[in-house]
Amino acid sequence: MTWTILGGVAALFFLGRCICNLYFHPLRKFPGPKKAAIGGFLEFYYDVLKDGTYIWEIEKMHKKYGPIIRINAEELHIDDPTFYGNIYAGGGKRVNKHEATVAAYTVPRASLATVDHDRHRVRRAILNPYFSRKAITDLEPLIHGLISTLFEKLDNYRAKGTVVDLEKAFSAMTGDLITLYFYGSHGDHLSSEDFKNEENEAAVSVIEMYHLARFLPTLANWMKKLPIPIVRMIHPGAAHMLQSQVDVRKAITETIKSTKQTTRSRSVILSALADPNNPAEENTLDRLVDEGMTIILAGTEITAHTLGATMFYVLNDKKILDRLREELAELAPGPPEQYTYSGLEALPYLTAVINEGLRLSHGVSARLPRISVVEPLYYGDWVIPPGARLLPPFHHTPISTQSPLIHYNETIFPNPKKFDPTRWIRAAETGVNLNKYMVSFSKGSRGCLGISLAYCEMYLTLARLVRRFDMTLDGTKLEDVEPYHIRLTSYPREGMGEVRVRLERRD
Question: Which domain of life is it from (predicted)?
């Protein structure tokens, strides 16, 4: 009898909540299907049970209901490339993140997961100098050294006739770079068997859990309190993530202890995050671990994934590869080890190739809702209200869009799924700025911290790689790299993405 009563109460509560969301909610007048507006059930089905495919349902909703729609009880989604800068605003506009979204990152003290605009500015200001264009330019010798180490390993595979997965190779290189810059030392993943990279494996585990953690953040926090062997029996991916946090904590502690007498260090963790001049609450070990996790994981997986996808498209079309090599051959005489980021950036076709690779791999692909703190936003005749809940906690309306929908916009990018570097050159010749629609790194005051580092890695690696080796795809097809599952980043319909090649040394 008691269970019957409890079930009835739960059913009445659920029905009441649905009615409230449909007919009394501040967003009730916005377009969209009622099955989305009643709560997060439709979103849960597609993003959790169908593994990150809600974006394609959202795309269908936009075609039916228009550019602004309600995609769950409290969130609006806008499919309009010209409005992107209003959502992801910069300058002095105060923009908060969405609490429910950042809770899924499981690193609550990191800049990436900081909800409040003002606190984020404090945290970002600490790191900005170390990821500025000048700071990254100073890293070029280090990047060249790691690329040379990568090529030595690739030469060994070439000599043995072994097939190489370029995505794994790139993740080993990017992982070594970001950990070296962060700690002052790295795990030498480039020397490991088959480019094994624990940081990348942890990143993949975080990404795989992202949607479930969005809906059940307390579950993720509960797992963090359990012994790792027990978590491994429940969810191996979660255990991998937790072990990575333990490893990061240990590495940070050892780095600080081993160099605490040093007056100057190249390690970001010592030079920036652990600076005694920072506010005391910014220097706790827990915060350093959370920040370290995000910097290392983001600096490993996303850049490697983009490099791999770009190389697939280049190798899949000989005309693109030939034109790229012709442009590189026109550079001033000298070994590729002397290439500079600024020099390569001036090459229009190489730049176009990198832009297309970024566009079709999408970078951070998940919805990243923003909340305008001070005033409502206006989209056409629609006034986006400053509040979205009738009951506490009150907060502003989360608004989002997604990079794949911007990058696949047929008006901005005709034949959008085709890898066509010349679209960027044609646009530049006619005075059209396509770069403002490149949102792989997001934009505004919350845009990607490591954008300059990622670009530098891509320019130097791609330019040197196509000059050093002849490569032939070994069974990798378009469906092996084309995005379908949108987690934090995008992945193909099957697997995690791989670009398998056979190598030959160029004369």
Answer: Eukaryota
Reported as type and span, the H/E element at residue 268 is helix 268-268
Structure tokens at 445: 């005051």
Lowest mean pLDDT among 33-37, 207-211, 318-322, 482-486: 207-211
Average pLDDT value for residue range 417-438: 96
Determine contact, residues 288/252, Cβ cutoff 8 Å.
Answer: yes
Give per-residue pLDDT as tens, 371-394: 988 788 999 999 987 644 444 555
User: What 8-state DSSP symbol labels residue 493?
Assistant: S
- The residue ranking higher by pLDDT, 10 or 154, is 154
Interatomic CA distance for residues 106 and 293, integer angstroms? 10
Task: Return the pLDDT at 391.
Answer: 45
Same domain, residue pair 34 and 170: no
Give one DSSP letter per residue of 181-230, joined into a string. Answer: HHHS----GGGSGGG--HHHHHHHHHHHHHHHHHH-HHHHHHHHTS-HHH
Domain annotation covers residue 267: yes
Domain that holds residue 83: 1-98+368-401
Q: Kindly state whether residues 136 and 277 are assigned to the same domain.
A: yes
Q: Using the 3D structure, point to which of 348, 379, 401 is the last residue of a domain.
A: 401
Q: How far apart, in whole angstroms, are the C-alpha atoms of residue 227 and residue 400?
A: 37
456 is an annotated ligand-binding site residue: no
Question: Residue 95 is inside which H or E element, if any?
Answer: strand 95-97
The two tokens of residue 125 are 């200001």
Specify the CATH number for the domain of residue 166: 1.10.630.10
Question: Could you give the angle at which helices 217-224 and 236-258 cross, rounded to 10 degrees?
Answer: 60
Number of domains within the chain: 2
**Please, which residues have CB within 8 angstroms of residue 280's CB and are 6 or more apart in sequence?**
none
Report if residue 407 sits inside a domain.
no
